[in-house]
Amino acid sequence: MANFVVTGARSGIGAATTRRLAEAGNTVVGVDIADVDVTADLSTAEGRAAAVAAVTEACGGIVHGVVCCAGLGSLSPHPGGKMVAVNYYGAVDFLTGLRPALGRAGSASAVVISSSSTTTQPGIPEDLVTACLEGTEDEATALGESLGALLAYPATKLALAWWVRREAVQANWIGEGIRLNAIAPGMIDTPMTSGADVNPDLAKALDYYPVPMGRRGRPEEIAAVADFLLGPGSSLLCGSVLFADGGTDAVCRPTDWPAAWTPSNEELARLFS
Ligand code: NAD
Question: How large a percentage of the chain has pLDDT more than 70?
Fold first, then answer.
């Protein structure tokens, strides 16, 4: 059986994933701000470093899989800067810190939870996406703070998906036997979409979210996708972003991707030489 780590383990998708992995007989170390094995605040660099150290010790230095679920929702009262700190850096920094322990497994899998808002929420501020991917954490959180939660949320999730695609193919991830992939859930029925701190006026807008399947997803359905990405059935997946959204992305963006590719000669030379 494997050593797995789940962040955001005390609620919603993280709790469902923890349950599923534990019921299959795995050792699962949960990370969250309270009520779990490793209590840590993933919004700070110190909290992430402490979480990496505690998780590594709890797993005897070898981690076979990680699912990064910790996140703050855009309908909550949290400021945009905090959203950047938890949703983007709380996953990216944490995973980067765990890379040695994942590498020691020989074959490992890391999963981040992005969002279907990346392709279906209009007006994502691309400067925040760029700041996450290329700037410093201070710059990105300051920009997130000025934009507010509603705009910062999908930007953090788009940055996360692009980070996965950029990093998954590198020698220090797939070259070390660590597969890195993302899940983009649609609207899932968890405290993030129906909890006490969700703004009731903004929550009404969710009733108009286009879901061809006609219902919200269940956290257990995302846990099943995470389980698949951790397991041997997904051994060829590297840098993939799996949409699990009841058809929302397909109905909003039917022909945007897969997209035809017209690379420059330089790009072709770089890739195929
Ligand atoms: P949730 O609110 O039920 O769970 C989020 C968890 O993250 C909570 O347990 C919370 O304590 C933890 N967390 C928040 N801040 C933290 C911090 N600073 N340090 C450590 N842990 C912290 O929400 P959920 O719906 O289960 O969301 C899980 C993930 O899925 C999130 O990343 C979310 O953005 C993503 N997602 C959710 C939906 C949805 O509709 N629910 C859709 C797309 C993506």
Answer: 100
